[in-house]
Amino acid sequence: MEHCIRTHDTWEDHGHEIKLFVPKEFSFAENMKYFSNAPNECLYNLKDQKIYKAMALGEETPVFEISGEDESSVTLRFLGDTTPALTSTKEAVVHYVRDWFDLDLDLVPFYEMAKSDILLQRAVESFYGLRCIGIPNLFEAICWGILGQQINLTFAYALKRELVENFGRHVVCEGEDYWIFPRPEDIADLTVPDMAPVRMTVKKCEYLIAVAKLIVEGQLSKELLLETGDYKKAEKMLVSIRGIGPWTANYVLMRCLRMTSAFPIDDVGLHNSIKFLLGSDRKPTKEEILKLSATWTNWESYATFYLWRFLY
Length: 312
Fold this sequence. Notes:
Elements: E1 6-7, E2 11-13, E3 17-21, H1 28-36, E4 45-47, E5 50-54, E6 63-70, E7 73-78, H2 87-100, H3 108-114, H4 120-126, H5 138-147, H6 153-167, E8 169-173, E9 176-180, H7 184-187, H8 202-216, H9 222-227, H10 231-239, H11 246-255, H12 268-278, H13 286-292, H14 300-308
Antiparallel strand pairs: 1-2, 2-3, 3-7, 4-5, 5-6, 6-7, 8-9
């Protein structure tokens, strides 16, 4: 019997597989280098230039493989018996992956601007097709921002693994383990002593619990942040929350809300990248960064993400 292929604007449904169409300014190999750099990552597995991930979507928990076999598309293949029965679940997976890879953003204006920029010219030539890999889940994005405050990246990944393995959900598919990030509901009713298995400071525990409560109570959501309609208003809303300063707010706006004007200007990695590219013996001052970034208007998040790429 011939298999029915359902074609959508940005994807094709082949039953156990989905073909996602990608823009010309996308390189699966270049984005894999980003994924491959994450030490001790617990929310996806990598093998043979493929990404493996599980998602909790209602009553279904699809586990899928992402591969890039040609320049015009990436393929999602559902593993085991986890192919979603509901079309809406498949649509949710497609939406997540397109958001994760930021596939619906037109990068042409960014590349045009970067061609003549002293810092970005080399970056876009070297890393063409790199996308700002996102964190589509707001709670996960904020937790990651808080976890990473004032510690090195290796320890931040260790803390995330401890948080996920103690309070998240675990599934096994085809003999492999897959972890799913805790829901706000899993954290909101905890006390600081409950979070002792995670080697966080008391304050960070308090911050995570408080953010979880705000989300559960409907006082904080992606929709509310997006409804502000303005990057600065969304930043102000996030900074008003205990534990979220300007760096964390901009990190979340950049990686989760996809606000291309978000600019974590105080980021140490950004400073080190600029120092490297300028061949300087010191990190740039904030005033120097503002001057260097004067032409990045509305593309600050991508400029930052591309400059980070020089660090790995």
